[in-house]
Amino acid sequence: MRFPLRGRALQVALNFGNEHVITNLKDLGFTPDRAADVAAAAKKYADEETALLVRQLIPKSAWPGVVVVRRHFVAPREETWLMLKYESGKGWNLDSALFV
């Protein structure tokens, strides 16, 4: 069985707040509902990964280059894979998304 896949390179910084992220995603062509959902999920996963790195006592100087791929369920048969990347001086970026 084949699933239709659509992917986007996004390069959206997550450190400016949720409304800013939603606006940037809308500018990239996302619907308002999808933009809000993706922004909330990306922020949640970035916060979880930050907490994990802190718990593991990894120095912040070693964080640049950390890449996280997370599976986000939108609906029972709809999911989004989000790739987050930590960049020095910028924080977490929503690098790309794959819609299944």
Automatic annotation (TrEMBL):
Domain of life: Bacteria
Name assigned to this protein: Uncharacterized protein
Species of the source: Rhodoferax saidenbachensis
